[in-house]
């Protein structure tokens, strides 16, 4: 069934040759995780376990529709499995094919991909409570595993990987796990990196203890031997020789199946392993366009966490970032076909209150113009989304993007928070940034409430303020939460913004804004827009406890 012209680079081949029961793959962008091990392993599971149920796991349902399934489907088709012939997304196979249902038939076709032998893949997301409840699975597959909530996974999903021991108990891939991701950059995702330690475990095979890593190497070599047997059988000219190699293949595959049981592999590698497919120009572009930390983590696969001397030192991704709040009630009315047809605007955001105004804060710069959007909730302030445009685009362009995204927002009112920098004019322009923003918003029928905050408080005050905000200490501060999906770039900027000790005390490290080799959306610009929004929102009513924050914001900008 497999095509003859498929190329796998050495890293992909090592993973495919091993095909251990459990594997964790941490590799750079464009390494070929879905196209190589992902497609091969999931297809092997389905082919070897007719009528099985295999979970495809994601942090959010939107992630599964938008980023996990499309490359998986393309990769399946690349190795010979055709939609409508070998697999059917969201619809049962035609009755005339007489394909049996899985042993544990799904309650709905909406979250199911049926395989030609009665196996199925079930979509399970952590942002849809109960999607794994009552589910009995035979294997688990997950892309972007660094986004998973590990505690919730252990409690709700991992325990579902328990089914059909009588039917598939002899197959080494039964109850298998394949999790893939690029390099995590936050401490709460360290769990997947720690899986590398499993290679040092001793495992009993027959009457001999062997290191897991040595066993993986043995399996890879054994699979190469089996592949040669297949080649020799293909080259055979007579039935007797074909039968001889067929017998050897059956015997060798029984042995390798026993070797693979209870095995764990850990695969890591940079994007450069797939340089023949990506091309050198692509890698050069990534190097040119990305912040050094992004290139090192996402391409070179280096392990780097939040900058050590962070300006936002108390920020905790696990505490302050909400699981992506998608409005699936709206999404599922769009007739998505995994995932074509989705219009990505504010109607997909469950945490955006459409009948209330939107707050915005901005930062203007020659290289990038940044925008942060938020709304107040009963017990916290929610940063809903961050946006930016880079030169040659102007501040008007990011506001146009805002108006397009929030076109269907019912309450067309914006509370526009801005500081003294938005009131300046110079030789290059006769109108202020505030004027430019207001003009575009009014053109799109938005009512603008101007909220001028004056001079920004100094860096030391902001450093102390954010420490209190993130810790949630005292009545003076309103806690904050970030929509993890909508504010993905803002979160990266928060994590990458460092601090410096100067003669004036702690300051935000703004040097990355001056570096041509730094991707400017990763520099502090977005955090400045966030500062403006939060300070403007609460400078007179912060925590609903103080009539004025003049004492709190006492230093100069």
Please state the overall shape, judged from the principal axes of the Cα atoms. Answer: elongated
**Residue windows where pLDDT falls under 50 for at least 5 positions:** 542-557
In angstroms, what separates the terminal alpha carbons?
67 Å
Q: Number of folding domains?
A: 2
Helix content: 25-40%
Main β sheet profile = 8 strands, mixed
What amount of the residues lies in strands?
15-25%
Please name the CATH topology of the largest domain. Answer: Nucleotidyltransferase, domain 5
Can you count the helices?
18
Number of strands: 19
User: Tell me, what is the CATH class of the largest domain?
Assistant: Alpha Beta
Structural class: alpha/beta
Strand order of the largest sheet: 3-4-5-2-6-7-1-10
Task: Tell me the Rg in angstroms.
Answer: 27 Å
Average pLDDT score: 86
> In the CATH hierarchy, what is the architecture of the largest domain at level 2?
2-Layer Sandwich
Overview of the molecule:
With 557 residues, the chain is an alpha/beta fold. The protein folds into 2 domains: 10-197 and 264-275, P-loop containing nucleotide triphosphate hydrolases (Rossmann fold), CATH 3.40.50; 317-544, Nucleotidyltransferase, domain 5 (2-Layer Sandwich), CATH 3.30.420. It has 18 helices and 19 strands. It has helices at residues 10-18, 34-48, 61-78, 150-157, 165-168, 190-194, 212-235, 239-260, 275-278, 280-289, 292-299, 317-320, 328-331, 395-405, 433-443, 459-471, 488-496, 525-538; strands at 22-27, 53-58, 87-89, 112-115, 120-125, 139-142, 176-181, 202-205, 208-211, 264-269, 321-322, 358-363, 368-376, 381-390, 413-419, 447-454, 480-483, 499-502, 505-508. Strands 3-4-5-2-6-7-1-10 form an 8-stranded mixed β-sheet. It has a 7-stranded mixed β-sheet with strand order 11-17-14-13-12-15-16. It has a two-stranded antiparallel ribbon with strand order 8-9. A hairpin with a 4-residue loop joins β13 (368-376) and β14 (381-390).
């Amino acid at each position: 069934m497999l095509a003859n012209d498929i190329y796998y680079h050495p890293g992909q081949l090592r993973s495919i040759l091993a095909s251990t029961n459990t594997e964790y793959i941490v590799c750079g962008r464009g390494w070929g995780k879905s196209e190589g091990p992902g497609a091969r392993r999931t297809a092997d599971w389905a082919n070897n376990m007719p009528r099985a149920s295999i979970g495809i796991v994601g942090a959010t349902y939107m992630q599964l529709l938008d980023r996990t399934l499309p490359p998986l489907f393309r990769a399946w088709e690349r190795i010979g499995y055709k939609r409508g012939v070998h697999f059917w997304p969201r619809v049962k196979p035609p009755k005339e094919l007489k394909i049996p249902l899985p042993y544990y038939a799904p309650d709905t076709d909406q979250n199911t991909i049926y395989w030609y032998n009665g196996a199925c893949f079930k979509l399970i997301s952590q942002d849809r409570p109960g999607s794994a409840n009552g589910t009995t699975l035979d294997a688990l597959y997950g892309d972007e595993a660094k986004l998973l909530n590990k505690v919730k996974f252990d409690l709700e999903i991992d325990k579902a990987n328990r089914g059909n021991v009588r039917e598939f108990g002899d197959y080494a891939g039964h109850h298998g796990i394949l999790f893939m991701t690029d390099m995590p950059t936050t401490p709460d995702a360290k769990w997947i990196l720690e899986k590398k330690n499993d290679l040092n475990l001793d495992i009993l095979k027959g009457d001999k203890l062997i290191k897991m890593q040595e066993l993986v190497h043995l399996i890879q070599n054994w699979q190469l031997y089996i592949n040669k047997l297949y080649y020799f059988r293909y080259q055979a000219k007579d039935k007797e020789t074909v039968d001889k190699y067929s017998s050897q293949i059956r015997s060798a595959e029984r042995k390798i199946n026993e070797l693979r049981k209870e095995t764990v592999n850990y695969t890591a590698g940079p994007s450069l392993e797939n340089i023949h497919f990506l091309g050198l120009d692509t890698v050069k572009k990534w190097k040119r366009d990305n912040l050094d930390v992004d290139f090192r983590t996402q391409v070179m696969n280096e392990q780097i966490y939040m900058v050590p001397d962070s300006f936002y030192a108390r920020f905790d991704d696990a505490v302050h970032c909400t699981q992506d709040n998608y409005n699936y009630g709206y999404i599922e009315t769009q007739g998505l076909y995994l995932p074509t047809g989705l219009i990505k605007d504010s109607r997909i955001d469950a945490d955006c209150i459409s009948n209330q105004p939107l707050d915005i804060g901005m930062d203007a710069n020659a290289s990038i113009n940044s925008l942060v959007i938020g709304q107040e909730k009963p017990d916290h302030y929610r940063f809903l989304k961050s946006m930016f445009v880079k030169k040659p685009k102007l501040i008007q362009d990011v506001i146009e993007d805002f108006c397009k995204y929030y076109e269907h927002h019912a309450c067309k009112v914006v509370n526009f928070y801005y500081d003294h920098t938005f009131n300046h004019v110079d030789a290059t322009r006769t109108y202020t940034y505030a004027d430019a923003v207001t003009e575009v918003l009014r053109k799109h029928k938005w009512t603008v409430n101007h909220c001028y905050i004056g001079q920004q408080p100094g860096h030391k005050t902001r450093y102390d303020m954010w420490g209190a905000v993130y810790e949630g200490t005292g009545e003076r501060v309103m806690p904050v939460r970030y929509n993890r999906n909508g504010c993905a770039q803002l979160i990266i900027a928060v994590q990458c913004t460092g601090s410096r000790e100067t003669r004036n005390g702690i300051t935000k490290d703004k040097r990355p804004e001056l570096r041509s080799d730094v991707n400017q959306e990763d520099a502090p610009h977005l955090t400045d827009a966030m500062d403006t929004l939060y300070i403007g929102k609460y400078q007179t009513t912060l925590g609903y406890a103080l009539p004025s924050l003049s004492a709190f914001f006492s230093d100069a900008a």
